Amino acid sequence: MLAFGPLLERLLAGEFICAVSDEGAFRRLQDEEVRERLDAYLRPLNRRLATNEEGTVYFLAWHTLDEAAREQLSRQLGETVASLLPLLEWLQLVQEALGRDGPPAPGDVLKPADFSSRCEDHQGLRERLERLATDPYFGSQSDQLDAQLKQVFKRLKEHGYLLQPHADRQYYLVTAKIDYLLDLTRFIRDEENLPVDDQAPSAQERLL
Fold this sequence. Notes:
Layout: H1 5-12, E1 17-18, H2 23-29, H3 32-42, E2 47-51, E3 57-62, H4 67-98, E4 109-110, H5 112-120, H6 123-133, H7 145-158, E5 162-163, E6 172-174, H8 177-190, H9 200-207
Antiparallel strand pairs: 1-3, 2-3, 4-6, 5-6
C-alpha cells in the first residue's frame, strides 16, 4: 500500500478528490481494483471510500456507524448545516453576478475581477457581497470590495471548493466538491429531521 500512502493521507485528512483537484488521483480511484485495495486497508479503521451519485468526487465515509461514528457524524453534519447558508448565497451570487443559468460546475473558471466589475456597477450585488464576505464563515473584516473578494475566494479555496492552478494568477477552477455540496443540500431539503436532532444519525446513515 506504499504506492497509495500520500493519497490515503489526503483522504483521511478529509480531502475530496476529483478530476479538477487531482486528475491523476481521480483516475486511479476510478479503477475498481484500486478502490477494493483501499477499502481493504481502510476497513480496520472503520472507514471506506465513497463517491457521490454522479461519481464526480471521492471522499471517505464511515464503514460501520457505531456510537463513536454517529457522534462524530452528528458534529460534522451540524457544522455543515451551519455553513450551508453562506455557501448557497455564494452560489446564487455567482449565478446572478455572472449571468449564469445554473450553479457553477466542476471545471468552470471563476475570476475575482469579473465579480469586482459586476458588483461595482450594481449596488444590490455589492451589498450582498459585503454581507456574504463579513459572514463568520468567510470572515472578512474589510470594507473594501477587492479585499472582501480576496477573502471569499481564499476561504473557498481553503475548503476545497475552488482550486487556484497558479498562485500568481487570479483565476480559480471549481472542483467537484461543489457537486457534493449540492447533493447534501438536496438531502437536507428533503429531510424533515434536519438540522441535527435525536433522529439525525439515521438520516446520516442513508447519506453516508
